[in-house]
Amino acid sequence: MAEALPLPAPSARERILESAYELFSHRGIRAVGIDEIRERADVAKATLYRHFASKDELVLAFLDRREQLWTREWVEREARARALDPEGQLLAIFDAFDEWFRRADFEGCSFINVMLEWADGDHPIGRASVLHLANIRAFLATLAAEAGLREPETFAHSWHILMKGSIVAAAEGDAEAAQRAKAMGGALIETYR
Amino acid sequence: MAEALPLPAPSARERILESAYELFSHRGIRAVGIDEIRERADVAKATLYRHFASKDELVLAFLDRREQLWTREWVEREARARALDPEGQLLAIFDAFDEWFRRADFEGCSFINVMLEWADGDHPIGRASVLHLANIRAFLATLAAEAGLREPETFAHSWHILMKGSIVAAAEGDAEAAQRAKAMGGALIETYR
DNA sequence: GTGCGGGGAGACCGTTCTGTCTGCAGCTAG
DNA sequence: CTAGCTGCAGACAGAACGGTCTCCCCGCAC
Known about the structure:
2 copies of one chain form a homodimer. Chain A is mostly helical. The first copy, chain A, has helices spanning 12-27, 34-41, 45-51, 55-82, 86-101, 110-117, 124-146, 152-172, 177-192.
């Protein structure tokens, strides 16, 4: 049982990524400097740049991890765990959102935030954010197809509008945004049945 | 007719504000430096700081102008001009959005962008953005009340979610976002009639 | 005329940013 | 033992940032 030790002491790379995740997701990219990440990770600067060629590469790695932790292991998992039928799973997204929006450390959707921060031009970071958002939509389309709804991809686009709108509203301070979106989602399902 | 001269040669302050508007609205706040605004306005640095005490104050002035030009003179005007009845005016917002989303220089909603850029803490700039967003919602509530809908303020929150969601979707590249939001809006009106 | 306020040109300051480099310490495999 | 990798510490470079300052010009009101 050698690999079941108390805590394998996270590697430097892991500590960097964890710090970047925490700081980037809460404060945005441009507002966070390399030095702050370095300090929080308790790592030398040379070490950081040994693992990530540049800040941009670190940002891309952060976005990948965000997809893993948020999209895959939170949104998708919560949706599938909270209901048995695909329609209920779609609606359950907003139940999870409702709890999320009420958390004191609510941080919003990093893909939206980063995409808007890189709105102009087609920087790799902006493109990556758009791609991660499309991956969310793919999950929605899958659920829609499983539910037997018409035009799953079109439906997913509309559903995603509800998700994004409610997240922005929550960032604005509207704690009931998830419930509002869920109600509109219910009506949307009706029209695609 | 002394004040009807060809063009009264915009003052330095006006040129600064115009440059800031163009640059901030398209590229965000942190991505734009004072020097770039100064250069585009063809103004000396001392002149800029004579009119605006700091970059933050310039940002606040930009947000005020954005409300004037975008909220008041575009959204509200277009909504009221495109339909006679308040329900139609609500829906007409998305007709205006539809044209907006298809413009090559589509810049998104500055209030959302700036708010998310200042997500953490309660910086005056973040607070101002939230306030400008609330002013949009006040207009929505007015239209809802004129239309005789139930709970105009609650309705306005939901309607605003559709607007914000579609704007983010458009920034992501979804040119049909306005039409999707309009369809969901139609259903929402039904439930608040 | 004279004073004064708006404006222009640009040097300058301190800070912060990303990114590089040197030097040293430890661990581990051969 | 030693070579090589990982990592720490921190100086350093070069650019960009926000913001201040001085000096000069010009137009206008008194």
